[in-house]
Amino acid sequence: MKLRILVILVVLALIAGVAYRIQTQQAGDARRGGDRALVVKTVPVTVREFPRVLDLPGTLEAAQQVAIVAQVSGTVLKQQAQEGDTVRAGQVLFSLDARPAQARIAQNQATLSGAHAETTEAQKKLDRLAPLMQSGYISQQEYDDARLALEAARARAGTARADLQAAQLDVQYAQIRAPIAGRVGRINVRPGSLVQAGGEPLTTLIAPGALDVRASVAQQDWPELVAARAQGKVAAEVSADAASSVQAHGELVFVDSQIDATTGAVPIKVRLVDTPPALLSGQGVRLRLLLGVEPDARVVPEAALQHAQAGDYVYVVRDGRAVVQPVRLVRSLDGLLMVEGELRAGEPVLVEIPQRLKAGSAVRLESAAR
Fold this sequence. Notes:
six-stranded antiparallel beta barrel; elongated; 38% strand; 4 helices; alpha+beta; 31% helix; disordered N terminus; CATH 2.40.50.100
């Protein structure tokens, strides 16, 4: 019995010793883990030129676009162009029924001939009466009546001549021609359609070549745009969306002189100098105005910026420790930030923040590709 008790006591002592050694080892591991430096991914601060840009949504439109409207009323007899056709200046697009105008031509020619005959007879009569009036054989009133008759005949001839010319123009206008070279847009009439002079457009011609971008600048961005224009030309870049590369370049050519009451912004227009086939009139695009350059900007990646109630900051590695450095965001561009703060060129800033990182934590650098 005593031997059994002795064995039990020895076993308990051995178990207690093992537990003590395990606890001691865990405590040592914990202390060593607390002093172990965290591996962090960093990027050096750069001091460089940083563009000042203004990104806006815009809409492409043809630099020259003409709505084709009938100048005379009539029925469409022929359609000589199809949607999407490329036409030359002067090419016939539509033919209207010219017979009513041709009938007026014949009528006005007859009226003009009669007016010419009346004028000739009135002139002869006046010529005969002139010596008689001078000799006193007729009264001044008779002579004046003959002179007024001649003037009335001449007026009727002038009216008939103007009506004839108008009818001749109407015959010409019955041939609706392209005023410029371009591509035919959607056609809104077909043979048999009745069109009205000055009515709805029959189609639209879009000139080949340059495109414009229409956009609007918010009131808060207006002063910076005005300052940039005062320095010279304002260049522009255009892409299909924010994720696309630049597809065209241009220049600011128009800024409205007043604010649009419906949008509260100032309308502007950019003329593109190159027009790739991928860009079409009516397409929505991203417009970037290049307003200038900040010469000595402190630049960090967007991933480096942290936020707190007290303001923005970045983690900077100094003397092997992660130090909180307050900064102020000035502007951003394509994943890079221009900031103001006590940052030195080449100083490493953290771009990935470990969960266990705290201000003053020991860190070890791992270079990050930009």
